[in-house]
Amino acid sequence: MAVTSRLPEPIHQEWDWQLRAACRGVDERLFFHPSGERGRAHDEREAAAKRICARCPVRKRCLDHSLAVREPYGVWGGVGEDERLALLGPVTRRGR
C-alpha cells in the first residue's frame, strides 16, 4: 500500500500533470497485475504498459511521484514494481 502521508496536499497544481498522461483513458488493468499473474503473461502485460509510458510527456513526473509515495504496485513512469524497489535502495521494503 502506498504511504499516503507522503502525498502532497490536494492542490490543483500538484496533480494537473496527470491530465497529460499517455495512460489517461487506458484500462488501468494494463498497469497493475492481477493476482497470480506470472511468467509470459506478466512480462507481456508489463511491456505493453511500458510502451505507453515510453511516449508519455509526464513520465518523469509520474515516476518521481511513485518513488516519493513508495508506490508498491503497478507500472509508474515506465518502471515496474521490482525496478522501483531497486531504485529506492535496500533499506526500503514494502510495508515500511
Automatic annotation (TrEMBL):
Binds 1 [4Fe-4S] cluster per subunit. Following nitrosylation of the [4Fe-4S] cluster binds 1 [4Fe-8(NO)] cluster per subunit. It comes from Kitasatospora terrestris. Its main location: cytoplasm. Upon Fe-S cluster removal intramolecular disulfide bonds are formed. The lineage of its organism: Bacteria, Bacillati, Actinomycetota, Actinomycetes, Kitasatosporales. Signal peptide: none annotated. Acts as a transcriptional regulator. Probably redox-responsive. The apo- but not holo-form probably binds DNA. Its cofactor is [4Fe-4S] cluster. This is Transcriptional regulator WhiB. [4Fe-4S] cluster binds at C23, C53, C56, C62. Belongs to the WhiB family. Residues 22-86 form the 4Fe-4S Wbl-type domain. It is found in: Cytoplasm. Keywords: 4Fe-4S, Cytoplasm, Disulfide bond, DNA-binding, Iron, Iron-sulfur, Metal-binding, Transcription, Transcription regulation.
